[in-house]
Amino acid sequence: METVIQTHQVCKTFKGTETIKNVNMNITKGEIYGFLGPNGAGKTTIMKMLLNLVKPSSGEIRVFNQPILPSSVEYLRRIGSIIEYPVFYDRLTAEANLEYHCEYIGYHNKNAIKEALKIVGLHGIEKKKIHEFSLGMKQRLGIARAIVTKPEILILDEPINGLDPIGIKDIRELLLTLKEKHGTTILISSHIVSEIESIADTIGIIHQGKLLTEVKMEDIRRQQTESLEAYFIKLIHGGERYA
């Protein structure tokens, strides 16, 4: 399988403290990669480095088999993302926010905005201003913005935060559809281990800046009787590696 995201011995140091330590990740085309780890483990920092929002202190990042340099920007047109809490122009409508995003990316498809809003369950609120949105609605709009340009890769940092159970189910089904029908590669982090378990092909578990393991879900199911959540807890607290 073609590798579309790869990190090699990536480290990041903030104010003399090494927060990311020799991380080697390999994400193949068309898979859902579930990124798990406690708060502060380094998930968001790595995602920001993949998007060139944070520069690694050492190591190499390759996306679409091209090295990411400090000046690299063109590859970002092929990626949709949510990092931390999605931010919008609060006094503009949902439609206007997505129009600005498409214009910035250079993507021109008149039907894409309505289609994206419908997919995430926000059809009919195109003219509603963002300051009137609930947290869950903003989270859905963030996902709409991430998918509106039909990217080849989605990088989603805790995308189901603020969603009710129905919203979580809808997003789970959306991600599976994007993978199965469009071949979208998805990197997703979440604290809800059961949700990651239900959709991911590969799991990466990070703790204190170190990638403890990178393993296929099919291997976990085949070789272990415990759930992914039990395995995750054991790995984080016991420091064991998957064998």
TrEMBL record:
It comes from the Bacteria. This is Bacitracin ABC transporter ATP-binding protein. Residues 5-233 form the ABC transporter domain. PANTHER family: ABC TRANSPORTER, ATP-BINDING PROTEIN. GO terms for molecular function: ATP binding; ATP hydrolysis activity. InterPro entries: AAA+_ATPase, ABC_transporter-like_ATP-bd, ABC_transporter-like_CS, P-loop_NTPase. Keywords: ATP-binding, Nucleotide-binding, Transport. PROSITE patterns: ABC_TRANSPORTER_1, ABC_TRANSPORTER_2. Belongs to the ABC transporter superfamily.
